[in-house]
Amino acid sequence: MKIGDLALATSTPTETIRFYEREQLLAPAARTESNYRIYGDEHAAQLTFIRHCRSLDMTLDEIRVLLLFRESPQENCSGVNEVLDEHIGHVAQRIRELRALEKQLIRLRDQCSDANAAGDCGILKGLAAGVTPRASAPKGRKHVHGAH
Q1: Which of 39, 68, 102, 120 would be a feasible disulfide site paired with 6, CB 3.0-4.6 Å?
Q2: Architecture of 3-55 per CATH?
């Protein structure tokens, strides 16, 4: 199948497919004499796997590791467990950060309970003064949410 067919079959934009190829997550497709990419069922299965991992907010590096294990079914899967355990830790950390962010936003929202002129808005004043800075990411953090 051509890239458009693969895109339709997997509900994946063609640019995303090309991106995964450039990142070497998706196996390179064979080319026709006219240089069109030709994909097979294995590409669709691999792309579905990648997209499911992405829906779980896994990084490209985490997916690379999982793909290596997937391509070596005889290997011990303890490495897969390690990847998931580490990812669960990243998710837990992100949840803590989002809860802290929610508290900061609530405190900021509480600074302006009435509809005032924008010049008297406690929220705008708080933002300008940096009253509720967003919690920074822990040092040494490998997983960067939104960077993939």
Answers
A1: 39
A2: Orthogonal Bundle (1.10)
